[in-house]
Structures
1.
Amino acid sequence: MNSEKLLPLSVLILGCGDLGQRLAAQLPVDQYRIVGVRRSPAVDTPSITYRQCDLSQPDALRPLLMEPVDVIVITMTPDERSDAGYRRAYVDTCKHLVEGLKSRHQTPRLLVFVSSTGVYGQQDGSWVDETSPTEPDSFSGQRLLEAEAIIRESGFPHCIVRFSGIYGPGRTRLIEQVRQGLAVLSAAFTNRIHADDCAGVLAHLIDKARRGLELDSLYLATDSTPAPMAEVVNWLAMQLKVDRAVFAPDRIDSERGNKRCANQRLLNSGYRLRYPGYQQGYAALLGLQGTATDVP
């Protein structure tokens, strides 16, 4: 590790919603200066200075790139679940960012693009990792791959992070489905990661870049416990004391696929999961004790 004192890095978070806010909370204020960009206005916090703009517009980023930026995190949310919405959020944003950086002759230390394991189209329960084929049938996966290619081919130092299904505070859809008896006992494998681990992974990678340590250009970020949906639903039903007989029978959800995501490259990078499996993560959401892995 470089022993000399490191100067604070400027971080630009494009699409600074829940995940961006969680990331900012894990970046020490004495080491990072953070600007969060949103479509809607927001009040500044001790850790984030907000800017409002529509990143799908070609010139929207120009004022934000007037000053050098060390790290840019692209963590977008489409304004609608459609091909056009995904194109605006991911493809157009990445295209305009790369063009803007090149026009300003800027070379950030790192571009981080938040992608998804939805880029994988496997339906046979097989394991996938960073080297697996990406042949999604969905428009969402296709647009994400298109955006990944823009970042990968930009010529800038970059890291693409493919998150599996994110859950956590404010992301409790499955819990509510179980409570209401609407969950499905699917045999398909599912993969997930707690929102705090999502932020932790991004902070971990940014910190490695800050310290000049080597990064891979692609990480699959998921917990260590892929599981059939039926197993997760049954476990939640036991915690919530819901009669498991009310749930719909087995069904494969083609939108979500059927695969098991491997996280070995992420673990090899030195990241330690706060919630290694769904039981720890959902137990924390439900207020059960002794559920999180202690992180020093």
Note: Residues 83-103 form the longest helix (21 residues).
2.
Amino acid sequence: MKPVLVASDLDRTLIYSSGALALTMPDARAPRLLCVEVYEGRPLSFMTETAARLLTDLGEAALFVPATTRTREQYLRVGLPGPVPAYAVCANGGHLLVDGVSDADWHRRVTGRLAEECAPLEEVCEHLLRTADPVWVRKQRVAEDLFAYLVVERELLPGQWVKELAAWARERGWTVSLQGRKLYAVPAPLTKSAAVREIARRTGAELLLGAGDSLLDADLLLAVGRGWRPGHGELADTGWTAPGISALPERGVLAGERIVREFLAAAGAPE
């Protein structure tokens, strides 16, 4: 029997920082939370306990593949419940992990394509450094020598600057995504969907399911048979949709729980 492949974004899709939980209900009715990531000795990311239980069930019923823009180091500090995923997509598709180790051949193929089709990372970093205002930039980072991002003060970030950056980047084969306090500049061919398709080829999976909240997840959702997006994030804010994509009303950590329920139901697994 062909496996069902479930590829999901992590941050603000399945796992949530304290600032993204969106616990708007009375405190006494708030869901119990499980910490799934600790950074520098402090709890950083959470799921509901119910979502954790459901994700464990999903890991036993389907091939679950985390598909994240996180670097390998950032991904490996997340302790998801359930079986350890045999495959994971990191750096927005720049690294395909097999049993926790990056597939060197895949990485060479990706970097070769970026060199042929996109402006150099150094040019993009120089442009960000030159045009971004230190008043609203807190950090500038390069991830895995593949893409760059800024940590910004969101309320001070000029919308016009973001639009101008996106147009400048598009002419050079790059794309821009604003997720919470992080603004990403990513080569357009660097996609989660390409890595997920490679995993499907290797495993023989025919039914692909996916979820994500940002514009960097749009290509992943277009590549799967059925997909879900939460009621928050870039995709929700822009009203993005496509055939086979369900827009969920839930926001915050309860959206993550709903997404895992939808995965289980679509995979044909009982809760």
Note: The chain is about 35% helix and 25% strand.
